[in-house]
Amino acid sequence: MMDKRPRKQAKTRSTTSEEVSSIEWEFIKMTEQEEDLIYRMHRLVGDKWDLIAGRIPGRKAEEIERFWIMRHGEVFAEKRNEHQANNS
To answer: Is residue 71 a contact partner of residue 80, using CB atoms and an 8 Å limit?
Structure first.
């Protein structure tokens, strides 16, 4: 007997021409206070970027997440080193 229930389809992520490759991201400048707050909030709530951004006036969740990824992502290790060398 065949099952007549609809099958779940795998979710696919569509890409748009507006998306920018993560390699092309520019470093986001944060003040020392903003960075401190992001690190403390991340320890408390994890990667709930909306919640963290709500504590920093003028910052969006996307900015906070991008800042975090660029600071901690392995993909950006070389780019971080370049950025630090250029700003030293």
So the answer is: yes
